[in-house]
Amino acid sequence: MRRYKFVAAFFLLGVLAAPCFAQQESLLIGPGDLIQVSVMDTPEMEQQVRVTDDGNVPLAYVGSIHVAGQTPGTAANMIQEALMEKKVMRKPQVTVRMMELATQDVSILGQVHTPGTYSITTPQTILKVLSLAGGLTDSADRNVTVKRNKSGEQLRYYVSNNSEQALSDVVMVYPGDTILVARAPMVYVMGDVGRPGGYVIATNDQRLSVMQAIAMAGSASKTAVQSRVRLIRTTEHGEVELPVHLDAIQKGKQPDMMLQPDDILYVPFSWMKNVAIGSSSIGAATAGAAVYLVH
After folding, report:
1. Which stretch of DSSP H or E encloses residue 250?
2. Whose CB has fewer CB within 10 Å in the chain, the N or C terminal residue?
3. What is the mean pLDDT of each successive set of 10 residues along the chain, which is 295 residues long?
4. Where are the domains of the chain?
5. Cα-to-chain-centroid distance, residue 51
6. Helix 2-25 and helix 72-85: axis angle, to 10°?
């Protein structure tokens, strides 16, 4: 029974450690980095060396090895092979650890409260790094892009409103990386509603319907002509105007419509004003519209 518990605990530890290992392996060694080379059961062979400008590390027993652009795991395999080729050891087990990175700063740009450059000396979670910049603004797109400094690889991370989901698959940020937070998509509700303005789509599924947008805007007023609501949408062929029968949608006679980024819903005050106001005038009115966060 005790043996079973030990095996189960060992397996669980491996499962928990696996994500950290996978994240660490995405970090590439570069010029100026300080690495530690260790050989199992041979402490006298442990050494810390800095990668030269040409990407090599001068190692005792094996000489110079080119490790720039390699992961720590790949570099360890290369050193193992060199030790065996030079007949220093028969079956060495080598590990390579990143001790110090040459580039210490991470750049955080876009829709954060205090964009800029921040110093980190070790890999950090993206949530911790974003907190250095004061977190996301209300107009931030929750799809955050991380660009690796050394490999140029671009990763996407979704900052979910659900805490469990946000913490379940956290991306690691390394010194030298760049984080870009774009502006979130937005829709506008104008005309005879309680709170006309622009609404940032920050829901987890990044979807917003006509009924949801109208509700966010404080609902249509009693004086609104709900049968004459217009949806103004910009397409590759220019602006198109679509009729929206809000009264029929509210009664369940027509299905709700999904909105697209930059859509404008116009709820007319009266039939006469509905005729008098054109799409260009409605579009111009959105320029100074207040912006609200949609949860």
Report:
1. helix 246-250
2. N
3. 43 38 59 92 93 93 92 94 93 92 87 93 89 91 90 89 79 92 91 89 78 91 87 88 90 91 89 57 60 53
4. 2-100, 105-183, 186-294
5. 31
6. 100
